[in-house]
Amino acid sequence: MSETADPDAVLRVEDLQKSFGGLVATDHASFTVERGTITGLIGPNGAGKSTIFNLISGFYEPDGGTVAVNGTDVTGMEPHEIADYGLIRTFQTPRKLDGMTVREAMLVGPREQPGESFRALFTRPGAVTARESENLERAAQMLEAFEIDHLAAQPATDISGGQMKLVELARAMLAEPDVLLLDEPVAGVNPTLAKKLTEQIRRLNDAGTTFLLIEHDMEFVMELADPIVVLDQGRVLTEDTPEGVMNDDRVVDAYLGGGA
Amino acid sequence: MSLLGDPVAWVSELTRPEAWVLASSVAFATALVGALAVGALGPTYFLFLVGLAGMYALLSFGLNAQWGFTGLINFSVAAFFGVGAYGAALMTADASPIAGGFSPLVGLAVGLLVALVLALLIGIPTLRLRADYLAIASLGLAEVVRLVVLNERWLTNGSAGLRGIPSFFAGWPVLSSFPETMPGLRITVVPGAPVVLETPFWEAALNVVVIVAFTLGTYAVLRRVHQSPWGRVLRTIRSDEDLARALGKHTYAFKMQSFVLGSLIMALAGVFYTHLNLYVGPGDLDPITTFYVWVAVILGGSGSNRGALFGGIVVVTIREGTRFLNDFAIPVDPAPLRLLLIGVLILVVMRYRPQGILPPQRELIWPAARRSTEPATPPETGTRTRRAPEPTADADERGVDGAAGVSDDGTTDRTRGERNE
After folding, report:
1. What pLDDT does B97 receive?
2. Which of B324, B352, B354, B351 is nearest to B337 (CA)?
3. Chain B contact probe: residue of A53, A60, A90, A116 with most B CBs at under 10 A
4. What's the pLDDT at A253?
5. Are residues A86 and A183 in the same domain?
6. DSSP secondary structure string, A159-221?
7. Residue A118 and residue A42 share a domain
8. A193 close to A183: Cβ distance less than 8 angstroms
9. A83–B248: do the CB atoms touch at under 8 Å?
10. Of A22, A208, B188, B223, which is most buried by a Cβ count within 10 Å?
11. What confidence score (pLDDT) does residue A41 get?
């Protein structure tokens, strides 16, 4: 595992610590996500995967350690500031946007829209219109690329859980992240849709987006991710290729609860 | 589709709740005109009611911009209304213990400014926290403002209130003396019951001009921002603030803007009230106003500007309409009955239509951008095809798009349906 300053590291986590009361959720965790990879983050239940995601994306403040995105130290920043440095995350349970159509829900994705400034709505309506038109077009293309363009006019709360995951991924892509953190992208998704999600993630990765994903579905992770970071009780157990991880006795022990 | 260009198409594109609200509004307006014509309703009192309805519509707009757009729970509507009213009154009234005698435009500016400061004072500590903190803090704020107004006599005249407030157009050319210079009119619709229009009528008419201008102006602004990317971020925050944060939105700033905007609109209603009533007292800050406005917004449909307008008018109708219940041989005091009626109404709405009477009916996308990206509508062929129903929150109006349909090429449709599972 490389700990040196590395221009190819889009995300570097160093010595990250977090505890809740007496429970140590993240215990001096360090790993890097190299640009252009699909890095998997696995571990048994309670290993601290979601906590690490929350620490990286700014939803939790770490007790110690640093998080760097694209070489910038973002430790302790607000989620929206970290997003500005190119890191976007999704959530384990798809978030529902009441009263919006899928297309409207997609349009929340793009960042730095002039129309998000109250004043610009009245002083620069032309710029607002231009960007909104562009975003509508991008949203339509993105939905098409994800093969869910037929859902555009559906209420965003009215589609299946798997479709929501697709919409969430498509929307996150409209924010043009350098690195996208996916929290269990295929949990609760039927195999057909899961396969589709896999294809989409691979396609987006080929186009230049780096991924860090948490997933319980071993088959899915092993097929998609390389390298894989294994967490156990808040510590990084190992970082290796899928083959390496599968043949690692410590990983097997962690999953079978024989870690002691 | 414009109302004037193609009224038939405009009406046929209304959703069911829209048509229902339109029809009942037309019926209600007709009844009012009838009552005016036969002299059952005094024209001056009628104009006062229009002013009151507009004022409640403004208050509902303000709360809708906070609760309906962003999900901010503000229980100090009466406080923001009150500081608007007192700000304007203290600047303009002859009997003002501090300044007094300024132009009503100065009063307007001061009323809004005080509301802005108050909104920032309460927003800065609470808007970073969970939604419930604002709710609790605002509940306290309303009481603090009311007690300050009641007890700080050097500033507010205390329980005596403020008198000697000029009309909104005092000091304006022409308009300031308009009610006196207008000749008295005598209109006879029903023989034997002439309607006399004199100075008080023209004063009330000017108030209606003010409130219509305030209401239309506010509605135009709110409609524009509701359909904008700004409004979309607010609606995202309402559903899921964490999602908005994860997508890079500075939610604290958006919540603050939404809160300040709503508070300013409430203060605007207060400024208008000062010049409508020509007296303000601590009783105007009673929390009941807050709850009337909440009822109006929930009844109309949270998140909908038109719903807030509708809800505000309904609440005023119930509030004022119950005054006449005694005329129809109801041998009880209508005052408590009024609250009972509003309570029953809100229960019925929550039971049978929890989203309110007129929730947002259409996709909210910046209109100019929608026009430029969507293909131009094909020329009218005479056989207008009915458009697919717009998505609404109404469950029984939802399409059946989820089901695999039987079409000409059943096979492709079926495989498509399976893929979409």
Report:
1. 86
2. B324
3. A116
4. 85
5. yes
6. S-HHHHHHHHHHHHHHT--SEEEEESTTTT--HHHHHHHHHHHHHHHHTT-EEEEE-S-HHHH
7. no
8. no
9. yes
10. B223
11. 94
| Same domain, yes or no: A50 and A122 | no
What's at A118, amino acid-wise? F
Mean pLDDT of B392-411: 37
Q: Kindly state whether B104 is in contact with chain A, defined as any CB-CB distance less than 8 angstroms.
A: no
Domain for residue A165, yes or no?
no
Rounded mean pLDDT of B43-59? 94
Residues of B in contact with A193 (CB under 8 A): 421
Contact A88/B247, CB-based, under 8 Å? yes
What is the H or E stretch that residue A20 is in? strand A9-20
Nearest-angstrom CA–CA distance, A118 and B254: 9
Most confident of the ranges A192-201, B330-339, B389-398: A192-201
Average pLDDT, chain B: 84
Q: Are B243 and A91 in contact (CB < 8 Å)? A: yes
Instruction: Please name which of B175, B146, B160 lies closest in space to residue B93, comparing C-alpha atoms.
Output: B160
A34: domain CATH number is: 3.40.50.300
Q: How big is the CA angle at A191 (ends A186 and A193), to the nearest 5 degrees?
A: 65
Taking the Cβ of residue B226 and every Cβ of chain A, the question of whether any pair is shorter than 8 Å is answered with: no
Q: How confident is the model at residue A83 (pLDDT cuts 50, 70, 90)?
A: very high
Mean pLDDT over each residue of chain A, to the nearest integer:
90
| Burial class (CB within 10 angstroms; exposed 0-12, middle 13-18, buried 19+) of A105 | buried
- Determine the average pLDDT of the residues in B374-403: 41
In a domain, A141, yes or no: yes
pLDDT surpassing 80 at residue A181: yes
pTM flag (> 0.80) = yes
The alpha-carbon gap from A173 to the nearest alpha carbon of chain B, in Å, equals 10
The dihedral built from the CA positions of residue B226, B229, B232 and B233, taken in this order, carries a sign that is: negative
- Are the C-beta atoms of B249 and A81 separated by less than 8 Å? no
What is the DSSP track for B339-362? Answer: HHHHHHHHHHHHHH-TT-SS---S
For residues A124 and A121, what is the distance between their CA atoms, to the nearest angstrom? 6
Report yes or no on A235 lying in a domain: yes
Higher pLDDT, B190 or B251: B251
| Interface membership of A59 toward B (CB under 8 Å) | yes
CB spacing of B419 vs A192 below 8 angstroms: yes
Mean pLDDT value across residues A116-122? 95
Residues 128-147 of A with CB under 8 A from B: 128-129, 131-133, 135-137, 140, 147
What's the rounded Cα separation, in Å, for the pair A225 and A238? 14
**Interface contact flag, B246 A136, Cβ < 8 Å:** no
Q: How many domains does chain A divide into?
A: 2
Nearest to A175 among B247, B359, B391 (CB): B247
Cβ atoms within 10 Å, residue B408: 6
Q: Is the domain of A47 the same as that of A78?
A: yes
Question: A83 is in which domain, residue-wise?
Answer: 9-96+173-256
B162: DSSP letter = B
A251 in the same domain as A144: no
